[in-house]
Amino acid sequence: MDKLYLSCIGLAESQSLRNALDQLPFPYEIYKMEWEDAWEELAKIGLYRSGSDVSQVGTTWLEGLVATGSVRPFTDDEVDSMGGAGAFFPAMWQTALVPWGQSRKVWAIPWLVDTRVVFYWRDMLEEAGIDETTAFVTLAQVEETMAHLQDSGIEVPWGIWALGGGIALQNAASWVWSYGGDFLAADGRQLLFDRPEAIKGFTGHLKLCRYMPPGIKSIDAAAIDARGLFAQRRVAVMMGLGGWLSYFLEQSGVSDVKNRLGVAAPPEPAFVGGSSLIVWRHTHQAQAAVTMVRTLTSKHLVQALARDILGFFPACLDVWAEPPYADDPHYKAVARAIKAGRTFPVVPKWGMFENKLNQTVIQLWDTVLAEPDQDLADLVGAYMASLARRLAVSLGIPR
To answer: Which of 62, 128, 194, 197 could link 388 by a cystine bridge, Cβ 3.0 to 4.6 Å?
Structure first.
């Protein structure tokens, strides 16, 4: 039997992954991709109909790959053999379905999930007289919590950070969605990020600038190590990847960290993303490829993978019914964020759209950090109107 090829992002060194695949009745090889290059490499596989048999893909990439006709859909029986729709977080399952013709086929199987959560030092909130159970439930309560922390003598109440891959936009999503705004219509045919509700959301998010570390000029990771500052207890509250939980619990160096560290879902809904597994149409070993996907999404393997890597959790629900997920309050908070969360739409040209909007959000943050006394609503409105005009032309999407 020919060797089966799997391309995955940042997991090639995982011994748990190799141990599981070693049990397969056929030879395999893993090809490692990096997040910053993965989309381009996957697009080439789809274009040339050659390369891996199975690939890990970002949730928002699926439509573009399906549109090329290069992805093989899963049959109903194959989906049922992996637990069906009910086996996965609902938000993640929606990213596996791409409207195609008159039907919604299953083009991918959810694998690993990522969300945004709020990390905080419980003792800092307690000393400021803040009830942690309500501190982050609504957007107004988040800002009120920041003000109380600052008034109580906390120099830096809030930390946030951005990198590539749409992080800045993902961080802002809770604010935009909570105000009733959105970025793009569900069918991808109308721009929404320049409408009043979205402007209010972006503006509310940027208001937190006043609680950031003093003197910084950018939220880029090169300018601010928000995660490191929080781990050193130099920041009271920060928003970040749910998967950072392991880092803070194991590497922060804070005494009694498990009791002092708090985790909360951000104002609902939180952004939910992650990755799924696809089978390429060009494979000559379709059933073996499906068997590989079934193995990769098995309960024991995704449990092990979640321990091997930072930033992601299992997308299948049965793992969350067992320790540590079921009985640890930190993980319970992450689960609440995922269950109540939303994903970005799986629509044509989303990748280009997300990249441009993410860049604009970063530019806004940097502008506000440099001049925090500006009228935020006017500033956000001007930036978003300008971007909408450009995108309406380049993407052919009406405003």
So the answer is: 194
User: What six digits make up the tokens of 49?
Assistant: 């109909």
Q: Assign residue 206 the CATH number of its domain.
A: 3.40.190.10
Query: Quick one: 132 and 191 in the same domain?
Result: yes
Residue 399 lies in a domain: no
State if pTM tops 0.85. Answer: yes
User: pLDDT of the chain along its 399 residues, tens only?
Assistant: 689 999 998 777 788 889 899 999 999 999 999 888 898 999 999 999 999 999 999 988 898 899 889 999 999 999 999 999 999 999 999 999 876 544 578 999 999 998 999 999 999 999 999 999 999 999 999 999 999 999 999 999 999 988 766 889 999 999 999 999 999 988 888 999 999 999 999 999 999 999 999 888 888 876 788 888 999 999 999 999 898 898 898 877 788 999 999 999 999 899 999 999 999 999 999 999 999 999 999 988 988 887 766 568 999 999 999 888 999 999 999 999 999 999 998 887 788 888 899 999 999 999 999 988 889 999 999 999 999 999 998 888 776
d(C-alpha 249, C-alpha 256), whole Å: 9
Cα–Cα distance for residue pair 175/254, rounded to 1 Å: 31
Joined together, the tokens standing for residue 106 give: 């299953």
Residue 283, SS3 per DSSP: coil
φ/ψ of 262, rounded to 5, equals -115, 150
* Cα-trace Rg, the chain: 21
In terms of Cα–Cα distance, which of 337, 279, 350 is closest to 89? 337
Pairing of strands 109-121, 261-264: antiparallel
Instruction: Quote the number of domains for the chain.
Output: 2
366 and 248 assigned to the same domain: yes
Is residue 230 located within the same domain as residue 308? no
Which domain covers residue 219, as residue numbers? 116-270+347-394
Same domain for 222 and 325, yes or no, is no
Those residues whose C-beta lies under 8 Å from the C-beta of residue 318, and which sit 6 or more positions away, are: 83, 87, 299
CB 243 within 8 A of CB 311: yes
Residue in this structure with the two tokens 């395999």, named with its chain if needed:
28
CA-wise closest residue to 235 among 316, 138, 147, 124? 124
